[in-house]
Write a structure and sequence with these properties.
The model has no long low-confidence stretch (mean pLDDT about 95). The protein has two helices and no strands. It is mainly alpha-helical. The protein has one domain.
C-alpha cells in the first residue's frame, strides 16, 4: 500500500511540475492563448490538490 501511494505521489508531483513548466512557457510566448493558460492553471491546481491528498494518505498509511 505504501509503495503504491509513493509511486502515485511521485507521478502526480511530476505531472504538476510538467504542467507548471508548460504554463510558464506559454507566458513567455508573445502570442500565447489566454484560454490555454487558464486551463493549464486549473489543471495545475487540481494536480497540486491530488498530490497533497496522496501525501496525507501516505502519511496516514505509514503511521499505522
Amino acid at each position: 500500500m505504501v509503495t503504491a501511494l509513493t509511486i502515485l505521489l511521485i507521478i502526480s508531483m511530476l505531472a504538476t511540475l510538467g504542467v507548471m513548466f508548460a504554463g510558464m512557457l506559454g507566458l513567455v510566448r508573445e502570442n500565447g492563448d489566454p484560454r490555454r493558460s487558464n486551463r493549464l492553471m486549473r489543471l495545475r491546481v487540481t494536480l497540486q490538490g491530488l498530490s497533497i491528498g496522496l501525501f496525507v494518505l501516505l502519511m496516514l498509511a505509514m503511521r499505522g
